[in-house]
Amino acid sequence: MQAQAPDSISKASLKEIQSQLARCPSLPSLGSINKALQGLLLMETRYTAQIAEIIRRDPSLTARLLRMVNSVYYGLTTPVNSIEEAVFYLGVREIRQLVVVTPVIEDFQRLTRQCDFPWREFWQHCIGTALLTREIATALQLPGEESDYVAGLVHDIGKLVMAWSFPDHFAEIHRQSVQTKRELTEIENEILGMDHAELGALYLERHRLPDLMIKTARYHHQPEKAEGCERIVAAVQVADLLLRSEKMGFSGNYVEVSHDQCMAVSGWNLLLGDMQEMERNIMQASLMHKLQMMPRMLEGLV
């Protein structure tokens, strides 16, 4: 059943949407501290003490790091209180991911203060999608270094932009989504005149972000259309739906996704292609194992 939007809310024209996007703050830069840390992490010789010293300059990153290591390694006899110890336990890859997450989440939290919404669970969904996208890309040896992780992190950026630029439309969309349990993009198009995927892509284009991020935002529900980036966008689609099917975090879409539906999406064929059934089963079982470990990590990150 289709609910009616209040008379005070009407569809926005493309011109109105572009005007609001022009006012929306840009993506955060990963400040000098984080750039210094990334550079150090990429060196062949990595010194825990040097990494710890850079992390120590950023109180928010420090707190997140200690919270994460104590959540993931919850069985430790004594809680980890030193940054050096945390770096030892987590490893370089996880630290690099944490460096990316921290400034992005904190800057975007400022965009969402005017909308009542379960944002913490939304951040968990975005970070979980990024982590699982990285696992898929690593397992299949997809090119992209950390870009696949960042693509997963910002795949739903259109929802944040909508909350900041069109808070009344955003609130009404989610009111109807709760009531009707229809697909979110369908309701977004009816009420705003554009869905979060296209809105996110236009926002990223405006701020001249890499093509992979733009195509991920626009096509993460239809990766076969992401020309030149199909497999990484497919990894994001699969990661996104796996988290939804396991009810980890909250994507903003109230329509439930079954495990069978998740396994039937187009992204799997793009990713696995002609892979033998046994190899497919091993790959999918490995991902499900990673997924089971996700709640503890997300609890520590957000």
Describe the structure.
The protein has 302 residues and is mostly helical. It has 2 domains: 26-109, no CATH class; 118-302, Hypothetical protein af1432, CATH 1.10.3210. 67% of the residues lie in helices and 0% in strands. The protein has helices at residues 14-23, 32-42, 48-56, 59-72, 83-90, 92-109, 119-139, 147-153, 157-165, 167-180, 184-191, 196-206, 211-219, 230-245, 259-263, 266-272, 277-301. The two termini are 36 Å apart. The mean pLDDT is 82.
Describe this structure in a few short sentences.
With 302 residues, the protein is mainly alpha-helical.
CATH architecture of the largest domain: Orthogonal Bundle
Number of helices: 17
Number of domains: 2
Largest sheet descriptor:
none
Low-confidence stretches: none
* Measured distance between first and last alpha carbons: 36 Å
Radius of gyration: 20 Å
Gross morphology: globular
Elements, N to C (H/E): HHHHHHHHHHHHHHHHH
User: Quaternary status of these chains?
Assistant: single chain
CATH topology of the largest domain: Hypothetical protein af1432
Secondary-structure blueprint of this entry?
Elements: H1 14-23, H2 32-42, H3 48-56, H4 59-72, H5 83-90, H6 92-109, H7 119-139, H8 147-153, H9 157-165, H10 167-180, H11 184-191, H12 196-206, H13 211-219, H14 230-245, H15 259-263, H16 266-272, H17 277-301
